[in-house]
Amino acid sequence: MMDAALSNFKGYTPKSLPRVEPLAQGHRACQGCGEILALRMALKAIGDNMIVASATGCMEIVTSSYPQSAWNVPWIHVAFENAAAVASGIEAGRKALMRKGRIPNKRTTIVAMAGDGGTADIGLQALSGALERGHDFVYICLDNEAYMNTGVQRSSSTPYGAMTTTSPPGQLSIGQSTWKKNMPAIAVAHEIPYVATGSPAYYTDLMNKAKKAALVKGPAYLHLYSPCPTGWRLAPELAVEISRLAVQTNIFPLYEVVDGQYILNKKIRKPKPVEEYFKLQGRFRHLDKKTVQQIQERVNRQYEALVRKAASAEIEEEPTEEAAT
Amino acid sequence: MPERVGIEVSLAASEAVCAADADVIAAYPITPQTHIVEHLSELVADGKLDAEFVPVESEHSAMSVCIGSSAAGARTFTATSSQGLALMHELLFIAPALRTPIVMTVANRALSGPISIWNDHSDIMAERDVGWIQTFAENGQEVFDLIIHAFRVAEDPEVLLPIMVNLDGFTLSHVIEPIEMLSLEEVARYLKPYKPQMVLDPRHPITMGPVGVPEVYTEARQQIESVLCKSKKVITKAWTEFAKIYGRRYKPIETYRTRGAEVLLMTMGSVSETAMTAVDAMREKGIPVGLMRFRLWRPFPLEEFRRAVKGVKVLAVMDRAISYGAQGGPVCTEVRSALFGESDPPQVFGFVAGLGGRDITTDMFKEMVAKAMGYAKKGKGPLYEMIGVRER
Amino acid sequence: MAKVDAIIGWRNLAIGCAVTEPGSSRNLRTGDWRSQRPVTDREKCIKCGMCWIYCPDMAYSPLRSGYFKWDGNYCKGCGICAHECPKGAITMIMEED
Fold first, then answer.
1. Helix, strand, or coil here: A140?
2. CB within 8 Å of chain C, chain A residues 231-290
3. Fewer CB within 10 Å, N side or C side of chain C?
4. Measured between alpha carbons, how far is A12 from A206 in angstroms, rounded to an integer?
């Protein structure tokens, strides 16, 4: 039963983007950080009526170095693996207080945020518990595909073949030897009302998904592609371009899952070859033709599987984000 | 005149939380705490307690939910034991650092390994340094009362620290005792609604838990130390208030037949009642022995402790936990440390007994006292010894 | 007090070492980090807002005129705006000392 908020959804358009900035200037992220860009967009879309519980990670470190805080909204950091549990506590506490008339009965969006490590690895248990219990909150996974803040170590979200400091290519290694864990699928398996993937290159799409996630009653999971120029050995000015290429090569497809129903947001009719994506990033420089071919085949297979899962209803390709008139 | 009801102590603990009108309960089951949490979920299910019951998927998440809930301004409670407490360990430092007034009952149980579900104090002794206020109950009435007292002290604007109320697992949690349980209205005379000083609220955004850079970390820790040490005043004042309203008096150090005592036995928790029986028997025989117990363990009640041992010649300290590789059990080493610098301190002898649920009998107490007196006469003895361990 | 550095006495520390001034990061001029800066040719600018929306540091803010104001206090010189501008209206130039 689709949440009423989704069936009557009025989204942002390129001409009507939210002006509010829950994140303040002066944060310490690297130049060209795609993660804080994705985060900024999601937060703008949700608006300043929110409380954020963050895991340890890049975003936490760069936004909360005492005495500077880049947070214009209430924010708490507790530990690495428990963003979802802390958010559950905030949600439960406020629910009780509202019911007992001790705070005004006004819904506030509770946001839990963590990186790929804090979500798919150490944070997986807390996330699973929170999703199963059905708390009314938004979980944002900012996926830069490794433990970046501690120096680019691999996570279960690191893509096959990527170089990290704990999956370095060498005589006996091609780099990361396992395939990226499918976190959105794990979220979907919990049968929550809303799951979506987002890329900062497609900002209207990302922001509308964040807004939907906030409006939905119950748990919502957002998986946001977060390019890391530092860890990926990428030129900083290419953070948005790589976020576009990730979608255009079908490596990071944009989709939503509403009450278990997959919806493909961007059907790429002529996907670009994965090489175009790899050649901009130093972390893939060592890949040989055979591995690239292997990856290409898998990307194709997974995308076809996704298309099959998607709604049979006609999907319009979204109007392009490129500046027009 | 309030009624005394025969009730399992665990359930009385839940009733105390209910009478305190807690807002959020987040707990994970672990023997022997289970009855506390089960009864709480019954009270919530029947509408007797208006609270959010969050059935978390681990103790680490239980404490995380509690921190989030408390930071959002809700009166929060949890309970655990042994491995569960150990699993929460990293968060036990963070809760006081964030000044979240969570109340937690610990049904004391031995830590693994080997795995044991039975009672001793190893779980709580491993958490001395975390910054929580820690109290010990000896019987069911104390469990009920200390929980009410805990909410009041924790939420005091001068304190805002979480509190662990300890009760012995099985030996206290699972026994049925006559307990006078206060109602919601009766508790409301003593416990006012929680008014958070620092809260997560979109109306006034704050950042909780920033990165404690080297320039500020020491100061942040000093704040907690200062608040914890100063909290003793609030704790004792709250006990005085409690006595005024409900007639039951609690003190940081509790004594039994210490007048004219040359030897003091030192215990903590419900084994103290067995010790009292042993003291009575020894006094019959003319042995000048008394009993001293810590009710308040953190902050360590230094003045009260030193006052209680003034003029005493010998302390026989019983520990229910081992501190591997040190000069005695945790309580014994702290007692010695507390006496350092005192002119004419008593001689201190340590005894470790009752590990992993092993019974402690009145005979064992008589043995400890006899040994302690013997060592004292000689002027020396072992730093500590295990009572009742089988050699071969 | 402790606006930029963290030097503060423990008696003046907020409860739980919280930061009570939202957005206090604005006291840190991260613009000092950059080695190049963007320059916008208003003639070419079509007010599409890509520079504003794609900036990880919120260095641009919308003006009533529809153009965007650049704040040198926070721009790290990453070059995303110049790279993404659909009309090539932004160029990166080296920062003078």
1. strand
2. 235-241
3. C
4. 10
Nearest CA to C50 out of C81, C73, C21 is that of C81
Q: Which residue of C has its CA nearest to A37?
A: C56
Biggest CA–CA distance in chain B, Å, is 69
A312 has pLDDT over 70: no
Which chain A residues contact residue B65 at CB under 8 A? 85-86, 88-89, 92
Whether residue B329 is found in the same domain as residue B230? no
A148 within some domain: yes
Whether C70 and C61 have beta carbons less than 8 Å apart is answered as no
The pTM (predicted TM-score) of the whole model is 0.96
* Residue in this structure with the two tokens 């009435």, named with its chain if needed: B141
Residue A25's CATH number? 3.40.50.970
B43 part of contact set with chain A, CB < 8 Å: no
The two three-digit tokens of residue B381, written as one number:
């003895």
Task: Quick: pLDDT tens for A64-107.
Answer: 999 999 999 999 999 999 999 999 999 999 999 999 999 999 99
CATH of the domain at B185: 3.40.50.970
DSSP per position, B209-270 = S-B--HHHHHHHHHHHHHHHHHHHHHHHHHHHHHHHHHS----SEEEES-TT-SEEEEE-ST
Q: What is the maximum alpha-carbon separation in chain C?
A: 56
Q: List, in order, residues 6 or more apart from B348 with CB less than 8 Å away.
A: B314, B315, B317, B332, B335, B336, B339
What count of other Cβ atoms lies within 10 Å of the Cβ of residue A301?
A: 10
Residues shown for chain A = 325
- Nearest-CA distance from A114 to chain B in Å? 15
**Tens digit of each residue's pLDDT (9 = 90 or more) over C30-49:** 999 999 999 999 999 999 99
Q: CB-based contacts of B114: which residues, under 8 Å, 6+ apart?
A: none
Question: DSSP string covering B134-158, please?
Answer: EEE--SHHHHHHHHHHHHHHHT-TT
Chains that touch B (3 or more CB pairs under 8 A): A, C
Write down all domains in chain C, each with its CATH number in brackets: 29-94 (3.30.70.20)
Let me know: does B70 contact B76? Beta carbons within 8 Å.
yes
C-alpha distances (whole Å) from A30 to each of A199, A230, C75, C95 are 19, 8, 11, 18
> Residue C91, SS3?
strand
CB atoms within 10 A of CB A150: 13
| B175: containing domain | 4-246
Q: B271-284 and B362-378 helices cross at what angle (nearest 10)?
A: 60
Q: How far apart are the first and last CA of chain C?
A: 29
Contact between C10 and B220 using a beta-carbon 8 Å cutoff: yes
What is the number of structural domains in chain B? 2
pLDDT (0 to 100) of residue A318: 54
Phi, psi torsion values for A153, nearest 5 degrees? -95, 155
In percent, the amount of chain B with pLDDT more than 70 equals 100
